[in-house]
Specification:
- The chain is mainly beta.
- It is about 5% helix and about 35% strand.
- The protein has one domain: TolB, C-terminal domain (Neuraminidase, 6 Propeller), CATH 2.120.10.30.
- A four-stranded antiparallel beta sheet has the order 1-24-23-22, with no helix packed on it.
- The longest helix has 8 residues.
- This is SMP-30/Gluconolactonase/LRE-like region domain-containing protein.
- Keywords: Repeat.
- It holds the Pfam family NHL.
- It comes from Branchiostoma floridae (Florida lancelet).
Length: about 375
């Protein structure tokens, strides 16, 4: 039996090995013919998806005007209120009384769902994760190509397939949540389309969508972070042993970019603190890099190693309400906590391999993803 891939890039390389990548398209938006389509929002009752006929696809501009819906919600089977919108459905969903998580619930118990057991195959490539102000868990599954929403107890509330996100031919890479609770989703267009960023409104319609410029090398994985103060969006890029970060406003205008000359080798994930500083994990150098909101390098911390504040293939990164930095130390099977200045505080051991994304809940929970599961620590 072949050895399991040990790196996220290796996993993705295997998945994309036989794809032919066409010549790089020129700069600008919409030059590749991959236009977003009307978002026929597919939201499903507590759990399983119902395949529904989407009807004809309607072409819409590459960048819809904010506030103008480009699609609508379909009625959930059995719902007595036709036209009920996704967020209203989310707010009305109750916990399934027949559902039992993989591990017993309790104040001190870790909850795992989406992997082996009753939730098998619901997650196959979980990567980016975020928690909304109402404490719902939003997970990007890049293998299934959808965005899934769970309660903190592990009940799947709904899912958004790629067509509901406006780009049927693209797959989601990462997700961030704005202060207003609206999710922003990074869509990967490889091999033939530009990458895009999409915002979904509280009623399930696309309110903002723009293509990312094709002025940096693109690999199969990118990360995204959102500054909720001003809706500035930070997107990582990496190719081989070079990488960087680009900053955009909510209309898609490029504000600044940093690259290999600013020390980055293979940036993967990003996070933003309350002051607007950006933290980027680099899975090749094993450092976390901190930049200010103008892109100026501030400091780095971590570094290669097996214990304490050292890291081995860091992946997901987030900032909690106290300003502490939480980093998935993937190869060391733990989540490491630092101060904002990069001083080691403590760590939380993980029993899973290939941990990837990390987020914190409004009730003090710590949420971690690996390929096929979500792990919720009630406290950390």
């Amino acid at each position: 039996m072949a050895a399991a891939p040990t790196d996220e890039f290796e996993l993705q390389h295997i998945q994309h090995l036989n794809r032919d990548v066409p010549p790089t398209p020129g700069l600008g938006r919409g030059t590749n013919g991959a236009q977003p389509v009307a978002a026929s929002t597919n939201v499903y009752e507590d759990g399983e998806s119902f395949r529904m006929h989407l009807g004809p696809t309607l072409a819409v501009p590459s960048t819809p005007k904010p506030g103008v819906p480009v699609g609508g919600a379909q009625q959930v089977p059995g719902d007595p209120q036709p036209g009920l919108q996704p967020q209203r459905i989310l707010s009305k969903l109750l916990l399934n009384p027949m559902y039992q998580p993989n591990q017993p619930q309790g104040a001190s118990h870790v909850i795992t769902f989406g992997g082996d057991g009753p939730e098998v195959k619901k997650l196959q490539g979980a990567r980016g994760v975020a928690v909304s102000p109402d404490n719902k868990i939003w997970v990007v599954d890049e293998t299934k190509g959808n965005l899934q929403v769970y309660s903190m107890g592990g009940v799947r509330l709904c899912q958004f397939p790629p067509e509901a996100l406006g780009y049927p031919s693209k797959t989601p890479d990462d997700v961030s949540i704005g202060r207003d609770g609206h999710p922003w989703v990074l869509m990967n267009g490889l091999p033939s389309s530009l990458d895009s960023v999409v915002q979904i409104s509280t009623d399930g319609h696309i309110t903002t969508s723009f293509d990312l410029p094709d002025n940096v090398p693109r690999a199969m994985l990118r990360g995204m972070a959102l500054d909720s103060r001003n809706n500035h969006i930070y997107v990582t890029w990496a190719s081989g042993f070079t990488g960087g970060v680009q900053a955009f406003n909510s209309d898609g205008k490029l504000l600044w970019g940093v690259g290999p000359q600013e020390r980055l080798v293979r940036p993967m994930y990003a996070a933003v603190d309350k002051q607007g500083d950006i933290f980027v994990s680099d899975s090749r150098s094993d450092f976390i890099y901190r930049y200010d909101e103008t892109g100026q390098f501030v400091l780095k911390f971590g570094g290669p190693g097996l214990s304490g504040g050292q890291l081995n293939r860091p992946k997901g990164v987030c900032v909690d309400r106290s300003g502490r930095i939480m980093v998935v130390d993937s190869a060391n099977r733990r989540v490491v906590m630092y101060t904002g200045r990069g001083s080691y505080v403590s760590h939380i051991a993980l029993s899973t391999i290939y941990a990837r994304g990390v987020a914190v809940g409004t009730g003090g929970q710590l949420v971690v993803t690996n390929n096929t599961a979500v792990i919720v620590f009630p406290h950390y």
